């Protein structure tokens, strides 16, 4: 698909895809071929407490993600884009010597070069506001870059290369294996893919170093590379963020996951007031002990030991209640370091607890929005009385944006659906209070949440007793207090004073479901006799922890972090690297457009190979260029006829304009003949006699005898109707005129300046609008389109009317009714004729109705045949006058003859030095600059496909740049 400017905001983007700035769909131009990349269909595997096995995405040559705007196009023609009034040359990094149209082709591909147009990059550098990208385009960049946080500071290329080289060295020296948990085979596969992607990134940085790039593109590319480096860095901490509405038990679940009561939790109020990060201490570093570090907005930090955490949490973490002020609004982030425990997560993983959303706290909403712009993994916590609320008034800012809507916007943006599904865990808390109808309401509400989750999310998360839940039904409060109870028993200490009231409630819940716990764990005592929290046994706490379903969540998160996080991380890194490469390809295409070359939907690798042989093939290229233009003209003619035939295909929907015009013609003609009937024009076709009865007893009155002269009547009726139809069909805007204009409308679109049927451009200016060939073309259209449409309409309708098959039935229908009425009627003549005329009109309606039913499809059939004859027709001949006709090979139609004559005349002109000079001025300008950009685009395309260029290609780039 072509790179174009969004018609809404002007941002550079890709046809058929959402704009990176305004997110509106960019329409596909009719001058561009639509390319559908091959789909990446991956059959989902259910998750039943275990992470699903997913096929690895291959990053080998030719198998990278299809994000290309320069996809291989199998079409054999490209529209000629040339303006009748080309713009004035605009200075660029390479001076334009002259305006020209350049064309090269081989037997497989045709590449058409349009007149020079300034690129947006050049327009910005020159201060030309006409083609300058909008500020949003400069900030967001081309497609793909808008999905990442734009506040990333782009790093210098030298620094990016040094850090990526360091990562590659760690892998190639086997020093990186300790960062990749899992079995040996899995680790080897991941390291191999990681190594290849880093080599691609280094090759791309080397390619960038050979060419100066406009400032705004350079910043966009380096920003994408900086973000890619962040994901490539396997040494960095992997962040698992918890989000949810205020009051859903998010902080309680957070403490239960960690197995630590690091800060008090509240009850439905915005308690957590800042970003909280928890990591586990490095067991190899004795100095990395348990600490709490508060980072303030003024740049200072404060560190607290475990003994002082309780007061520090009240001062720097909890949102103040009532008139109790604290310093939470001055806090940027809080970090806890915990001692690693055996059942916990890998040491280089960090858990981030964020303030609750949808509470009307602007500061909390700002923290959430910022944190959701960069995601490694996400635990989405919901529960309570309002699981899903998407009907909030966010238009005027009176209400914060719903969490579910933010999840929908952030996590699935520009990610594969299977990756987005695996990096997200949906937890429904308060499962202990959901019983009966409440539980069914919970389940119904959760089903609505699926619309805000990644596609096929359910296929990757199948949970619950029957595997019918896509969410983790966790009793968060019970899980937290069970972990606290286990620690109290293991360390022989009582529950803290702050948790005593919650502990008593927890004891009551154990008592209420104790029979259920015994069924799950038959080793429990037969009766629950604990009178207070401290009386609950270790086994009973463990049974309650198992019942809470927390361990299932922990197991799945552990499995994701040890087996799948690297695929998620590498997918993000390769996507950002592809974004950076795509941005460079867009920029390179802009440079080629400044020389009049549009290759936005071509396979540039084939084109770049052609460039190598230009200098020795000019004579051949001249003739091929001429033939190519004429071939395109012929193809455009065939395409137009095919479009026309599809539009009026009688086997499909009939062309409504033509069918209506033909029906109007029949209606007007029928109305005209009906007036003839009413005026008595057909009265003479009725015999009217008086018979004198004879015999002795005969009455003195005379008997009236009437009969229809049926053959005279039918002949007169046909002739009158045919004459009326011929008059109607000759009127302007009649059926024949509509039929002809339908075809001419399609032709005119490609006869405009710049179109493939515009003869002055097809012939490189050798023939103008007044040439004999142009006159032949115009005559051909008038004779075989306009005149033949009228002839066919008249011929078909007259033939149908004169055919016996379209006469009137003498045994049924209007004709026997007319005959019977005439024979039985004894009225005086004036009365008789006034009563017989409706019967005659009925016969007229029956006759024209039969013809009308078939005329549309027959006319279209004959006209389509005549249209096809413009290209070729069959010829019958006799070897002698006594033999039957024999069919021979089709002969050329008038348009085909015109094309052959044009081809012959153009080849003859190649002997004219003046014409050759004019042709060369259009074919062979700016060779060095064009060769460079072709080479750069070819290598960038290879890198996007995972193919690392050879050192020779890099040396050639440097030579061309000099």
N- to C-terminal distance:
32 Å
- Biggest sheet descriptor: 9 strands, mixed
On the 0-100 scale, what is the average pLDDT?
75
- The amount of beta strand, in percent, is 5-15%
Structural class label: alpha/beta
Quaternary state reads: single chain
Number of separate strands: 19
Helix content: 40-55%
Strand order of the largest sheet: 8-7-9-6-10-5-11-12-13
Tell me the number of helical segments per DSSP (H or I, 4 or more residues long).
30
If you compute it from the alpha carbons, what radius of gyration comes out, rounded to the nearest whole angstrom? 42 Å
Shape: elongated
* Uncertain ranges: 29-149, 390-398
